[in-house]
Structures are given as C-alpha cells and as structure tokens.
Amino acid sequence: MNGQDLLLLDSMDTQGCISSPPPLPAESLGGEYKLGFVDRSFSAAGAAFISAIIVNPLDVAKTRLQAQAAGVSYSHPLSNVTNRMGYFGPSMMFADLRCSPSCARAGIEGTVSICPPECFRYKGTLDVFYKIVHQEGFARLWRGTNAALALAVPTVGIYLPCYDLFCNWLEEFTSKSAPSITPYVPSVAGSLARSLACATCYPIELARTRMQAFKETQIGKKPPGVIQTLLGVVSQVKSTNSPPNSLQGYRALWTGMGAQLARDVPFSAICWSTLEPTRRELRRLVGGNDANAWGVLGANFTAGFVAGTIAAGATCPLDVAKTRRQIEMDPVKALRMTTRQTLMEIWRDGGFKGLFTGFGARVGRAGPSVGIVVSFYEVVKYVLHHQYSPS
C-alpha cells in the first residue's frame, strides 16, 4: 500500500463508500493554515519588525553608495574654506571636526582642517560602515529605522497575508480550470500582493530613502524625521507652482513609485517562484506536515535566503533607478523623469558598474531579510495553527 491508498481508506465511510476528498496539506503554495487575515497580518508584522532592525545598516550602506553615485556629496562642510567660519562658535565641539579615519592628510589629531572632500567618499560597503561610525556615530547606522518600521509593519502586514490569499485562490482556480499554469501561481500572487502593498505605503518608503541618503551637517541639529521629510518634499514642489492650493505637491509623495513597482514586481515574481519549490523540498526533508517548529524555521529561512539573494541580484539596476528617482532634489525633474530615462542616465554616468552600484549591500541585506521575514511568519502561523487545532 502506498500513501494514496492510505488517503483513499481514510476517505471511506463505514460502508466502504468514498466520502468527501481529503483536505489539502498545510504546505500547499499559500501555506494554508486555518488562520484568518488578522492572524496572518500579526505574524507578518512581527517578522517585518525584527527584519527591519537587523538589516537596516546594510540598507543605509546601499542607499549611501547609490546616492553618492547619483552625485550626492558627503564631504564635511569644513573641508570648504568658505563654509568654515559659520561653524565656529560657542556650540562648536572638537568631535565635529573629525575627518575620515583613513585620511593621512587630516589636521591635528584627525581634524578636518586640511582634509580634502575625496576623503569622505565611500569606497564600498565596509567603508560606509567604518566612516559612518567614526564620523557620525554608531547609532547613525540605524538612520531611518523608524521609517523602516513604519513602512515594514503595514507593508509586510499587507504583503504576506495577501500573497497567501491570492495564492490559495489562484491555486484552487487553476487546479480546476487550467492545471498547466499552476506552477506560475506564486509569481502572479507575489506580484499582485507586492503591487498592492507598495501603492498603499509608498510615501513612507520615499521618506526612508531620503533619510538614509542625506546626512545632517548642521551642528547640534536633530536630523528630520518621517513627517518633516515628507513635508519638505511637499513644500519643495509647492514653491515651484504658482497656484497656492495645487495638489502637485502631494503628488510628489508618490514620486518614483513607477521605479519602485518596476523593481518590486519582478523581485516578488523571481523570489516566490524560487522560494516555493525550494521550501517544499526542504519541508519534505525535515518531515513534511509532521515537521516541528525548528524544521519549519530552518526550511523557510534557507529557502527565503536563497530566493531573496537571487531576486535582489537580478533586480539591482532597478533598485539603483528607484533610489536615484527618490533622492532627486529638483521637484520639476523628479515629476517629469521616467524609470527608463533614469536607467539610461545611470548607464551614461557609470556604465554597467553604475547599474550595479551597492550590489553587495543589497544582496547582503535581501537574503537575510527575506529569510527572517518568511521563516518568522511561517513559524508564528505554525504555532497559532497548532494552538487553535491541538489535535
């Protein structure tokens, strides 16, 4: 007797007649546990919270490298003789004069007096970490974390539950109507869910990118938060428009959303089409439906890590274009530019290397991030499912 015979026997009633078919296993494409949307959203929000805190430094490094390639200068204001006199005063601290720690031409005890702007250029991911810690402080590696949390919790809270629901609906529909396209269900469901989440929470994504890309250079001034950053975007656009009540300023809060979708939709399609078959095989290795929480965690983290790494590498040029559009300070140009024009501009400025600026930081961030989010989400669903159905 094989497994199909056992399922057939289980579906027979006492008179030997076949009753209703056995239920789908819990490891189907959408992770079909007996949970509602609220439970799934709770699981996803917790996963997003943990992931955003852990991988934020890599996100800052990636954004700084891409912004620098777009022309953002990170040189110290005191490296320009014209700007020095405005900094000297009773609030001046010696620490504010720190130069790059790797600079051999710095002034007395590493001050910036004769340090050229080149010393503040980032040369790679580790160099970004090193210079941010020494020039701005260790806490600045988590710059934009509040925006990341404000973004990640609702975005992933929409994204993963909607993916589950779309996946289950599409799987059920295609299995009856068009079985040949069932393998493409994860790609379609992931793209739809990501588009919905992106359109809903995009202004916070815009604020996060700007907060990570620009550093505060005024002494004793706290960097702007999410609300101040978004108000600054709106005021920049309104100042260029003649009608005082124009809605153009609020439209600017969605500047670059086309580039974001151009990155996220293929990212989701590649990620889920890789993740689903990978974790299905790994789940079988650790016991299938009988796997414990550690088996679920390991299978989902490994599959998520592999899928996130592949998807991030493949969509890196679109991520560079997204960052460049979001940090554009000219409001007229920002509203007029398209993703295609931005990619052409990046190609003219830096060629093939320019299209993959920040590749190491992006791949190093996406793999663990997807692994953490998916594994935490599935483990919490697993625990809640067994709590509701202890038998």
Automatic annotation (TrEMBL):
Protein name as catalogued: Mitochondrial carrier protein MTM1
The UniProt record lists the keyword Endoplasmic reticulum: no
Protein topology in the membrane: Multi-pass membrane protein
Gene Ontology biological process terms, A to Z: mitochondrial transmembrane transport
Solcar repeat locations: 35-169, 181-281, 295-383
Pfam families assigned to the protein according to its UniProt record, in alphabetical order: Mito_carr (PF00153)
Family per similarity comment: Belongs to the mitochondrial carrier (TC 2.A.29) family.
Predominant localisation class: mitochondrion
Alphabetized UniProt keyword annotations: Membrane, Mitochondrion, Mitochondrion inner membrane, Repeat, Transmembrane, Transmembrane helix, Transport
Listed GO CC annotations: mitochondrial inner membrane
Subcellular location, record wording: Mitochondrion inner membrane
